[in-house]
Design goal:
The chain is an alpha/beta fold. It starts with 7 loop residues before the first helix and ends in a 5-residue tail after the last strand. Strands 3-2-1-4-5-7-6 form a seven-stranded mixed beta sheet, sandwiched between helices. It contains eight helices and seven strands; from the N terminus they run ααβαβββαβαβαααβ. The N terminus is likely disordered. α6 packs antiparallel against α7. β1, α3 and β2 form a beta-alpha-beta unit. It has one domain: 3-Layer(aba) Sandwich (Rossmann fold), CATH 3.40.50.
Length: 237
């Protein structure tokens, strides 16, 4: 359940020459705000499907005890083949899971495990795609509208308190075109990389302008990524 991009520094500090600059900077902004608001000294954060743990510094800066959990690599918490984390029941103040949900084939056991490890007053911080290209890791199953994602989370025993959109439709269509062209330019001998960098700067600046002029109500229901905060519903656990 690792994240798609395994360069933690680039996720927190993306470069203007990166094709997903707008997506990564938007996610870093929203997750940073959540970490500052929900994090506190001594709180335990479990990153469910942590990958390279790119957002670890944000929660540790708030004083949290951060534990990465994944099926491979070298996380602090192992996840077995059934998706169960090697931690006690009700042991986490926060469970965070970034860009994992779209890769999960069966959502019920995934959310059941989150409910198991969360304390009664804990929070689930989850991000996933509204719209993006197919990217198996090792599988890729879903995209959500805001309404659909909220309904899916709440059907699994949670109450969604916040759902923050990242990147509106004008900008993410530009980013999708940029991503496709970068793949094509990379195949050009000698000058392909340079052309790709120059093209990325131009398209990213265009996307930045497009996102700035897109009304908030449009972005809210047509985002590239949603960052959500949820609490356990009554009777869940």
């Amino acid at each position: 359940m690792a994240v798609e991009t395994e360069d933690p520094a680039r996720r927190l500090n993306p470069r203007l020459v990166d094709a997903d600059w707008m997506v990564m900077r938007g996610m870093a902004r929203e997750i940073s705000q959540v970490a500052a608001r929900l994090g506190a000294p001594g709180r335990v954060v479990i990153d469910y499907g942590c990958g390279s743990m790119p957002y670890r510094p944000l929660f540790e800066a708030a004083g949290c005890r951060y534990l990465g959990a994944d099926v491979d690599g070298a996380p602090e918490v192992a996840i077995d083949a059934a998706g169960r984390m090697a931690v006690d029941d009700a042991s986490a103040d926060l469970v965070v899971s970034f860009q994992v949900l779209e890769h999960v084939r069966d959502l019920a056991p995934y959310f059941a495990e989150v409910r198991r490890v969360l304390k009664p007053d804990g929070r689930l911080v989850l991000s996933t795609h509204g719209t993006w290209l197919y990217h198996p890791h090792p599988e890729d199953h879903r995209r959500w509208t805001r309404q659909g994602l909220t309904h899916e989370i709440e059907a699994m025993g949670f109450v969604v308190e916040d759902c923050r959109p990242v990147l509106g439709p004008l900008a993410w269509t530009t980013v999708l075109r940029l991503t496709a062209w970068r793949f094509a330019m990379a195949k050009i001998p000698l000058i392909g990389a340079l052309l790709g960098y120059l093209f990325a700067v131009a398209m990213n600046l265009r996307a930045w302008i497009e996102d700035a002029v897109t009304p908030a109500w449009v972005t809210a229901d047509n985002a590239c990524v949603y960052v959500t905060v949820s609490r356990l519903g009554a009777g869940a656990g």
